[in-house]
Design brief:
Radius of gyration: 22 Å
Protein name: Sulfotransferase domain-containing protein
Shape: globular
GO molecular function, one term: N-acetylgalactosamine 4-sulfate 6-O-sulfotransferase activity
InterPro entries: CS_Sulfotransferase (IPR052654), P-loop_NTPase (IPR027417), Sulfotransferase_dom (IPR000863)
CATH topology of the domain at 127-287 and 361-422: Rossmann fold
Order of helices and strands: HHHHHHHEEEHHHHEHHEHHHHEHHHHH
Strand content: 5-15%
Distance between the termini: 34 Å
Domain Sulfotransferase: 173-416
Organism: Strongylocentrotus purpuratus
Helix content: 40-55%
CATH architecture of the domain at 127-287 and 361-422: 3-Layer(aba) Sandwich
Strand order of the largest sheet: 4-3-5-6
Largest sheet: 4 strands, parallel
Structural class: alpha/beta
């Protein structure tokens, strides 16, 4: 699966913003699905096609659909966030100006979120004080994974008891948790070249997109088999591994359906479960200038756009997504709209909304944040800092040079580069839209470089 990509839609574009809660309450709002221009394509692709190329695409869609919670697709197919006839189209493609009331609402709500975060004491859950709903959600995890781990291992390891046998099992204690199209693949590939970091599959997306059954827990543990094997073969119990699922920090779709409603963001998320299971985990976050990130993501995920990509198509989809987001903000809080999926993944660039949420669960010293631009400028320096953060042995300058001088991973394809840059109108819309989120992030992290001004 693509880095941090959403499960591939099999519903009409625009009707994919899942809002959890009772379906009768949803339908009582007298809303109806919007008919977007690709609905006919959707209707012809939900059954298995005969052409071999289309069949492979259909299989990928069906596989991606399996990541979604039961019933979510049915709900999304019957429900759209707002009735199209209730709101005028406030954003025109040929006049890239965002509604003043939308931007004012975003700024006001971000300020309220900041004040609320600064005012309230952080409540984190451990095994002793988990709310009942969270206990039920993570019941299989808490039954399989003990509260205390074996002290002789750096990684969170324990003895797994299955029927008549016992074996060593481990979980990752490092999460390269976000964000997609911010060079997470490149960082992952270079991190695993450290002798103390054992490579595993990069993106299981387990915490965000898998229901916590016993079978799925055991399957996730198998992702760390390389770690267990290498510790056994080498006798080195200080080895670590990492989960580099770039969806971990921001994808709350399942939590919204489980603990949220159409009017409120989720009360709890998978972050609460992860905090209760692995309170000592460390997190690495890569942040890229959000406008660039969105355009790069559009170019990268071919399946989502059915192979039709251009700056003009990007602009059309952008305007459509901004219209939908504006409609959402007319009815629901920002924290709720930030957890809905629109035609384009605008929400991923709302970094401060998600980072603040995780800072309620984990202390700042367990979260290392860097900009993609700084990583690209001096990867050796940034990699050295990451090794220090992870408390693993530093490498020599020669070793760092050998690792970081290799070509960058998962770069934009040449055929995508040849399509050209953003249209000026797209750039103007996105710069205006993301500006309050950048300002909020800079205040949250107390660092003006997250404004991404030209001089920084």
């Amino acid at each position: 699966m693509n880095s941090g990509a959403d499960p591939v839609d099999v519903v009409p574009q625009g009707a994919d913003g899942y809002m959890g809660g009772d379906l009768q309450k949803v339908m009582s709002l007298k809303v109806r699905p919007l008919d977007f221009r690709d609905r006919k394509k959707y209707e012809t692709t939900i059954s298995a096609p005969s052409h071999s190329k289309d069949l492979e695409l259909w299989k990928l869609k069906k596989k991606a659909d399996s990541y979604s919670p039961p019933g979510i697709m049915k709900t999304m197919d019957n429900f759209s966030y707002l009735n199209e006839t209730n709101w005028r189209h406030a954003i025109q493609e040929d006049s890239p100006v965002l509604p003043a009331d939308l931007m004012g609402s975003i700024r006001n709500q971000l300020r309220e979120m900041r004040e609320d975060f600064e005012r309230k004491s952080v409540l984190v859950f451990d095994r002793a004080n988990l709310p009942r709903n969270l206990t039920l959600l993570g019941k299989a995890i808490f039954r399989v994974v003990p509260e205390n781990f074996l002290p002789e291992y750096r990684s969170p390891c324990f003895n797994l008891h299955e029927e008549d046998r016992s074996s060593l099992a481990c979980l990752p204690n490092v999460f390269l948790a976000g964000f997609p199209k911010c060079a997470t693949t490149d960082l992952f590939k270079k991190l695993i070249r450290h002798p103390d970091v054992v490579p595993t599959s990069k993106e299981p997306h387990w915490w965000t997109r898998t229901r916590f059954t016993r079978e799925s827990v055991l399957h996730y543990l198998k992702h760390q088999t390389n770690l267990v094997r290498q510790m056994r073969d080498t006798g080195n119990r200080r080895l670590i591994t990492l989960d580099a699922s770039a969806s971990t920090l921001w994808d709350n779709t399942y939590s919204l359906g489980k603990f949220g409603s159409i009017h409120q963001p989720p009360r709890w998320t998978h972050a609460d479960v992860l905090r209760a299971v692995l309170p000592e985990s460390r997190f690495l976050l890569l942040l890229r200038e959000p406008t660039e990130r969105l355009y790069s993501g559009y170019m990268a995920f071919d399946l989502e756009w059915h192979g039709v990509k251009s700056p003009q198509d990007f602009h059309h989809r952008l305007v459509q997504s901004l219209q939908d987001f504006s409609r959402c903000m007319k009815k629901y809080p920002l924290e709720t709209c930030a957890n809905f999926k629109f035609n384009m993944r605008l929400r991923v660039g709302m970094y401060s909304v998600f980072i603040r949420d995780w800072l309620k669960r984990y202390p700042r010293e367990q979260i290392h944040i860097l900009r993609t631009e700084d990583w690209a400028k001096d990867p050796a320096k940034e990699l050295s800092r990451i090794f220090s953060f992870l408390e693993i042995d530093p490498l020599s300058q020669d070793a760092l040079f050998n690792i970081t001088s290799s070509s960058r991973e998962n770069q934009r394809k040449q055929e995508d580069r040849s399509l050209g840059k953003l249209l000026p109108a797209s750039q103007q819309l996105l710069d205006e839209f993301y500006k309050p989120f950048k300002e909020d992030l800079a205040q949250l992290l107390q660092d003006k470089k997250y404004l991404w001004t030209q001089s920084m």
